[in-house]
Target: Cortex morphogenetic protein CmpA
Amino acid sequence: MPVWFQNQIKKAFYEKNRSQIKLLNQCWFFYRKKQSI
Model:
């Protein structure tokens, strides 16, 4: 997982920003799917 991504997630959790966390999760799963092709 890229460092900038980890930082974004930490920030979202710290702010308890649920929509941001959801968005980051979706982006991560999408990114992982593309990598595995």
Q: What stands out?
A: The mean pLDDT is 85. DSSP finds two helices and no strands in the chain. Residues 18-36 form the longest helix (19 residues). Residues 3-35 form one domain.
